[in-house]
Amino acid sequence: MPTAHAAHAPLRFYHARGGAPGPSSAPGGESGPALYARLRQRGFNALLLPAPWLLGPDSLSAAPLDADSALLAGRRVPMAEWIGHVADQLAPHGLALYLDIVLDRCAVGAVSGTAGPGWYQPPPENPARDPRMSAEARGVLHLRPGPLPPGFLQAWRERLERWTERGAAGYAFQAPECLPAPDWAELAAALHGGRAAPQLLAWAQGLTPESLAALRGAGFDGLFSSLPWWDFKSAWLAEEDGRLRALAPVIASPPHADTPRGAADKRAAWTAALCADFLMFDDQDEARLPDVAAANHWFAQAGLRGPLRLAGGRDGHCTMLLRACAAGTAVLALNPSDTAEASVDWDALAPLLPPADFLSEGVPDGLAPQTDHLAPAGCAMFLLEPTHPVREPSRHAARRMDGAASQRIVVEQVSPAVDGGAFPVKCIPHERIPVCADIYMDGHELLAAELRWRAADETSWRATPFARGLNDRWEAAFRPRRIGPHEFAIHAWFDAWQTFRHDLEVKRQAGVDLRLEVEEGLLMLRAALARARNASHPGAMTLRNILQRFSKSAEGETVPPTPEQLSALLDEDLASTMRELDDRPFEYVSPAPYPVWVDRSQACHASWYELFPRSQSAQSGQHGTFDDVIGRLPDVREMGFDVLYLPPIHPIGQRNRKGRNNSLDAAPGDVGSPYAIGSAEGGHDAIEPLLGGLDGFLRLVEAARAHGMEVALDFAIQCSPDHPWLARHADWFSWRPDGTLRYAENPPKKYQDIVNVAFYGAAARRARKLALWRALRDVVLFWVHHGVRTFRVDNPHTKPLPFWQWLIAEVHGQHPDVIFLSEAFTRPKMMYRLAKIGFTQSYTYFTWRNDKAELEAYLEEVSTPPAADFFRPHFFVNTPDINPYFLQSSGRPGFLIRAALAALGSGLWGMYSGFELCESAALPGKEEYLDSEKYELRQRDWFAPGNIRAEITRLNQIRRANPALQSHRGLTLARSGNDRVLAFCKSTPGRGNFILAAISLDPFQPQAARIEAPFWLFGQADTGRLVAEDLLAERSEPWQGQTRELTLHPDQPYRVWRLSLHG
C-alpha cells in the first residue's frame, strides 16, 4: 500500500490551483507526467492541489458535497484511491502530494459522512437573496460556532489518516481560526503519531495578531504568510513574520505585481525566496516569473533560518530584507519604486548586520550588485560571511619624532577621540565612523590626508582619503566589520602635484607664460618615474607617455607648451598616478593610533526583561525552576523582548538570611535574598539546587536562543557568610579588629547577610590580591563557556577601577562579544569612567528624570559627543531595588509614559517583571516595593486586567522596525508648546529612517500640544509637505506645514510617527 512521499526539505511547492492535470495531453494543456517532470527540473519538490472531492452542483466554492469521493478518469472513486493514484505518479519525480482542505464549510445537501447531524448551519443571511454575498458563498453551509459537534474531529481524523496512508504528505487547511487551538492540537497529535506523519499547514494570510495568538499550541507545521499583498516596503511584513514564526515555519509566495513586467517579476520571485521557510509558486507565478527555477534551486541550498528583518524603503532608498543563511547572512535589496532609482542606505542597515565580510561568490546569477543603486523595480543580493572576532590586544605605535619638519603640518581637534585617544570609541559592526580633524599648514600649498584603520590583530592598514571641508576641517569615514579592538590613524602631507595643477590652471587662465612652470612639472614627473621604476609600479608607462610629449628646441631653449600638453599635465588619470607615487613631503603621522572598540549590535540595541526564576512556578507558593522559565519564554518573546535577565541564580546563604520585606529575622521557609551568594552547595559558579541545576540552566539558555533571545546573568561580587571562599580563602575578605567579618555597608545601610571581598592587601603593601582577581575572572569565563554572553554587573562603582579594566580586558581577550552592563547609580564622573574602561552599557539617571527640562537635558547629554562616543545609556523603567516615586502614584498612565520614554529614548531599555501589570505598591516613604520579590516568591497573573502588555509589544515592534530607535544617537528635540509634553525626533545619519514622538508627562490630565516637526532636516520650508505614518494607528497622512495640533490623554499619553518625503 502506498505511503506518504516525504519531500526533501525545504519544501518548494507548486500550487496548481486548477487541480491535477489529466493523464494525457488535452488541447492547449499539459499532461500530468510532462508537468511533473518539468516541475522537478525547475526545482519543485511538492505539489499542492485543491482537494478533488465532489462539489455541489454549480458550486464555485471548494466546500465538499462528498469529501470521501472523487472523479478519476471520469468515474467516481473513493478519495483514497484517487490520492494513491496521483501520489504514485508524483513519486518518480520526487514530488510530494499536499491537499488544500476546507473543513469549516460544506455544500448544501452534503452527504451524511461529510456533514454529520448538527455539524453545519446556513449563514445568518440567505446568500441567494443577498447581492452582497460572493458567488463562492452561495450553496454553502458553515461550521456551527462554539464547541465542535460530537464526532466532527474524529471523522476528519479518520479521513485524513486514510488519505495519508495512501500517499498524501500533508494538508493545507483554510480558515484555521474557525477551530480552537486545542482541537487543532488534538488532530495534529493524532496524525503526527501515525506511521506516516503528514505535515499540517494553515492559510494564515490576513489573520489579525489576536487570531494568530489564539492558534498558539495548535501544532501546525507551516503557516502561509501575507507576502502576496506586500508593497515592497511596509514594515508589517516583518511584524507578521515574527508572529507566524512563533507558531510554525513560514510559507511564502511572491507578491502580486499590479503590472506584469520582467524586472518586477524578478523582484517578486526573489522576495519570496528570501522570506520563506517553505517556498511556494502557484501556476500563474510559475508561468509568468522568469526566475522560478533559479529561485527554487538557490532556496534549496541557501539554508535560510531565523526571523526576517526589514529596513529602508522610503525616500529613494532600497528596502532591505535580511535572513540568516548557511553562508552567514543573506541581504536582498529591493527597489520599491517602479519608476525611479533607489540607493542602499547603509547607515539604516548597519544595526541589522552581523559582524561579517561581503562575499563575491555564491550570489545567484543576475543578482550580484554592481553599485549601491538599483534600477526601478530592481533587486540585488548581498551575501555576508561571519568574521572572526579580534582577539589580539590593541597595539600602541611608537611615537614619531622626526624633527621639526614633521610638525610643519598641524593636525588637531581629532574626533571621535575619548580623552584624546586614551580610551576607545565604541561602535558596532558596519557602523559608519566619521573621523574629523583640523588639518592645515603655513602658506597656500594644498594638502592631502588619508585615514588609515585596521583591526588590532592585522598588520596592514586600510586607507581612505580625507575630504576638506570649511575652515580646514577634514572628514573621512570607515566601517569596521569585526568585533573587538580596532584603531585608526591620520596621515597628512604637502600635496606637491595637486598644488602644481592648481597653480598651472590659474596661471593658464591668466595668460601667464608657462614654460618654467611646465619645466617644474616635468621635473616632478621624472622624479616620480624614478620612484615608479624602483617600485615596479604600473604607472611608469603613463609617466613615460606624458614625458614623451614634451621636447626642447635645438638651442636648448624650452618650447612654449601646446594646449594639448597642458591638458595632459592637468589630466585626472595622471593625477591619480601621481597620488600613488607621491613621496609625501612633510608627512604627518598620528603619534599613536586612536583606539576603537567594536561591539556586537546587541550592545547598542536590545530590550531587556528581568525576572526571578524562583517566582515562575504556576503553583502558588511553589519554588520555580528553569523549566518554569522556559514555559514563560513565548510570553516574554511575544512582548518583543530579546534579552532575559536573571538576578543571581547561585546558592543562597543560611547565616543571617533576610526575611520578607528585608526583615532581619527569616521565618522557616523564607527564600532569602539571591544577592547573599554562597552556601554549602557552592558559590558563584554553582546554581541554587531548587532552580534545577546546571542542566536546567543549559536547557534555558538553549530554549531562549531558539526563541531569538539570550540570557543575561547578574554578576554580583558579594558573598554570604556561608560562601565556600570564606573557609578556603579567609585572606580574601576584610576582618575587624575583634576578629569578626566586616559586613557590607552603605552607611547608614548595613547588609547583614553579605560580606564583600578585599581586592588589595594590608596597608603595608596595598598589593592587589591576584588570586582573588583571577578567581572572579574565572567565574565570568565559567558562565561564558556555558553560553552566557551578557552580564549585568552589580554595583561596579564600589569595586576598584583597575580591577574592572583588567577583568574586562581579560574576558574580551578571549571573547570580545561579551557585553557588560554597569549597574552604577553613582556620581556622573564615576559612571562615565566605568564606561571608558570597558563597560559596554550603563544604567542611567533616566529613572529619576521626570520633568521636561531635565529629560531634554539628559537626552541631549547622552545622545551627543563626547558622552555618546563611549557611553551607551540603558533606560530601565524600574528594578527590583527601585520602585520610582513617579510610578507609585501615577497609575496605569504613568507606566505607559515611562515605557514610551524609555523605549523611544534609547536603543537600550529594560523592565523588571510586574511593570507590565502596573505594580506599584511601595514601602511607605521609600522607593522600594512592598513585599519585594528579592525576599520572597511572587506568583502573578500575567494577563491580569489593566495590564499594558499590548502597548509594550507595540513599542518593541516599532523599535525593531525602525533603525533610528536602535541607537542612543540621532536625537533632535522638537517644540511642543507645552511644558508637560516632550517631543523629539530620532533618525539614522542619512535620515533614511526618521521617527517623531510626542509624549505627555502628565498621567492625570489631557495635555494639548502644537508639535513643530523639523521640516528643515528634510530640506523643506516650514510650509512644506511630508508624509507621516502613524505607527500606533497604522495609517498614513500628508502633513502640510510643520505644525500639528493634538491632545494627549492619560489613557494614550504618547504618539509616534515615521516621517518621510514621499512615504
Mean pLDDT: 92
Strand order, sheet with most strands: 1-2-6-10-11-12-13-14
Radius of gyration from the CA trace? 34 Å
Stretches with pLDDT under 50, minimum 5 residues: 1-6, 394-405
* Silhouette: globular
**What separation lies between the terminal Cα atoms?**
58 Å
EC number: 2.4.99.16
GO biological process, one term: alpha-glucan biosynthetic process
GO molecular function: hexosyltransferase activity; hydrolase activity, hydrolyzing O-glycosyl compounds
Binding site for alpha-maltose 1-phosphate: 658, 718, 753, 795, 934-935
Give structural notes.
This protein is an alpha/beta fold and 1063 residues long. Among the domains are: 409-495 and 592-598, Immunoglobulins (Immunoglobulin-like, Sandwich); 497-549 and 561-581, no CATH class; 605-653 and 672-717 and 767-965, Glycosidases (TIM Barrel, Alpha-Beta Barrel); 973-1060, Immunoglobulin-like. The protein is 26% helix and 24% strand. The protein has 24 helices and 49 strands. The strands form eleven sheets. An eight-stranded parallel β-barrel has the order 1-2-6-10-11-12-13-14, surrounded by five helices. Helix 2 (79-90) runs parallel beside helix 3. The longest helix is centred in the last third of the chain and has 21 residues, at 885-905. It is globular and about 110 Å long. Mean pLDDT is 92; it is low at 1-6 and 394-405. Homodimer. It is an enzyme of class 2 (transferase). The active site is at residues 794, 823.
